[in-house]
Amino acid sequence: MLKYLLLFSLIATSCSKGNTDDSWDVISNGGVPRITPKMALSNIGAYILKQTHQTIFFYDKSGNLSSSIMKDWSTTRDYKEINLCTKKNLHFTNQRMFTVEDLKITISKAIKKEQKYTVSMNKNCLKYNFETSAKYLLYKLTLLFHAPSVKSKIKDVEHGLGKFMVTKLSDAKISLIRKQRVDNGYNSINLYDITSFDKKKLGNQIEDYNRIAVSEIPSEIKEDYNNFNVSILKSSIIIFNIKENELRKRTFNCISLPKVRSILFGESKDKINLRYITPIGIPGSEIGTPVQNCNRGKNTRPLIFANWKHDKKEDLQKYFDTLKVKTGVAVIVKNFTFAQLNDMVWKTKTGYDLVVPFLDSTQNAVAETFSAFANQEQKFYNFSTTYLLGDYDLLMNIDNKKEISPLVKKINKNIEKHHLAIPLKQVTRLFYFPKRLKRFAIGSDLLEHPDVGAIEL
């Protein structure tokens, strides 16, 4: 299990950023098309939602259910009755309070569609009576997909109950401000797309370089910042967005994982090979290699490999040219920016047949890992994957954490059976953070999505 937590107190030993600068600046590879709970699977989406939204429930370090939104809650043993009372003075913005009606709307979206129930309201409390057990509901309300959220005046942006709110959303920059200013912390967050950022400004005034490749981080930053080598809950996978079943199967079986992995990421002694697409640390995941059985056939139609690592285009094309000679599978490598890929993957679902994304996972929201495969509104594919919905729905509505492992394994096997995706490796990387940060918790989940509001200057 990759569930070790390393806690460091990073005392200010050097500081080049001005003492009055309370902006947390991030360099990233692309942004997101919108800010809503549905973007929880996207790396940058989850990064932002960590600051802007808050789930109704969460699991504390001891694994117990807790809440910063509920004043009180209770259930009967059979979970046919659930009582929830909100705290007062919770706000989406200064002008928009969080009400018990908002809680009711949020919960209604999390309740199973077929489940019959009644709900009554008394001041800040809701009382639910279900005909059958609703034990799944409390777990479901720990997922970012079901965090309270309201539309803002900014197109494609929603506000949550987190400490920050988004004030600007564009391809080049995403800006957030803190709702209640503090004297000893960060009061704004800016995420800059590296493709449109002035490279001359890449200095130690940037707090977070960890959304870009390690090779893109300036050498002086690597020398001046604290660094931590950590295996994280993220896997690199190949997506096969190929509508024809037989063509998808053949491509899945014939593509060389060691070759593609070596070209894109180089050779690594500490790499973790995965049997399925989910990373080790998620229940139901396994170390190993996928099963592939390649058979040569007639030349296929040209498949488009959407490439984000532009300096590797020539090497990739040489490999795919060899693949065509050996197997008949034809692939053309095309370069795309991260902004273009975001639009293709999350909006149009077209323009590519193969792409290598990173699959983010968290131990307390495993179902979100599979949303891009099973959820028909959010999936990677331009064809139906409804055969995944049954188990995905069960995972979204589990009653007990012990049910996670067998369901994850079942969905993983189904994704492999239908040749939707194949794993390249689990991600292990160096993370860099300024030495000036104080009381900064370093851990597998926090490294991916730091809680900026909790960091002190």
Question: Can you describe what's shown?
Answer:
With 457 residues, the chain is α+β, with helices and mostly antiparallel strands. The protein has 3 domains: 138 residues, D-Maltodextrin-Binding Protein, domain 2 (3-Layer(aba) Sandwich), CATH 3.40.190; 85 residues, Dipeptide-binding Protein, Domain 1 (Dipeptide-binding Protein, domain 1); 198 residues, Dipeptide-binding Protein, domain 3 (Roll). Helices cover 25% and strands 25% of the residues. It contains 13 helices and 23 strands. Helix 11 runs antiparallel to helix 12. The longest helix has 15 residues. The relative contact order is 0.19. This is Solute-binding protein family 5 domain-containing protein. It comes from Halobacteriovorax marinus.
Bin the strand percentage.
15-25%
Counting structural domains, the number is 3
Q: Determine Rg (CA atoms, Å).
A: 23 Å
Helix segment tally = 13
Mean of all residue-level pLDDT scores: 88
Here the CATH topology of the largest domain equals: Dipeptide-binding Protein, domain 3
Low-confidence stretches: 1-15
CATH top level of the largest domain is Alpha Beta
User: By CATH's scheme, which homologous superfamily of the largest domain applies?
Assistant: Dipeptide-binding Protein, Domain 3
Structural class category: alpha+beta
Query: So what's the overall shape?
Result: globular
DSSP summary, beta strand count: 23
The major sheet is characterized as:
6 strands, mixed
Helix content: 10-25%
CATH architecture of the largest domain: Roll
N-to-C terminal Cα separation, in Å? Answer: 32 Å
